[in-house]
Amino acid sequence: MATKSTPAELDEIHHIAISVEDIATAVDWYREKFQCEIAYQDETWALLKFNNISLALVIPDQHPPHIGYTSCDAEKYGELKTHRDGTRSVYITDPFGNTVEMMDADSL
Questions:
Q1: Residue 6, in any domain of the structure
Q2: CATH code of residue 75
Q3: How many angstroms separate the CA atoms of 19 and 40, rounded?
Q4: In whole angstroms, what is the distance from residue 56 CA to residue 47 CA?
Q5: Which of 5, 11, 32 is nearest to 77 (CA)?
Q6: In terms of Cα–Cα distance, which of 94, 95, 89, 90 is closest to 107?
Q7: Contact between 68 and 12 (Cβ < 8 Å)
Q8: Which residues constitute the domain of residue 20?
Q9: How many CB atoms lie within 10 A of CB 78?
């Protein structure tokens, strides 16, 4: 009979980013429909904090839709870029062309 082993610590999804045409309109809509807080907002992107995950709203020409993961060793995926909100990350793609953001945990 196989014994259960202690699972390794699971990775953490920091945010999901979706494309919107107008940041202010999108923020207003999400704030009307859901209980969330604005962590950051400007004309080209916003970050809404929910209880269990954050939602990034991005303008199509500025950022691709993506999933952002927290990583203690994000630099192993490539050179980290510092963003205007102070976070550092690198974008990679999965085998199917989906964009993944590896975020430096120390910059969050």
A1: no
A2: 3.10.180.10
A3: 16
A4: 4
A5: 11
A6: 89
A7: no
A8: 12-107
A9: 12
CA 85 to chain centre: 13
The predicted-structure confidence for 64-105, as pLDDT tens digits, reads as follows 999 999 999 999 999 999 998 899 999 999 999 999 999 999
| pTM, rounded to two decimals | 0.87
C-alpha distances in Å from residue 82, one per residue of 10, 26, 79, 107: 25, 25, 10, 9
Dihedral angle, C-alpha 46, 84, 43, 48, nearest 10 °: 10
pLDDT digits (tens, 9 = 90+) for 23-45: 999 999 999 999 999 999 999 99
Q: Is the pLDDT of residue 22 over 50?
A: yes
- Separation CA 23–CA 15 (nearest Å): 16
Reported as half-sphere exposure (CB side, CA atoms, 13 A), residue 76 has a value of 5
Q: Does a structural domain hold residue 7?
A: no
User: Rounded to a whole number, what is the distance in angstroms from the first to the last CA of the chain?
Assistant: 43
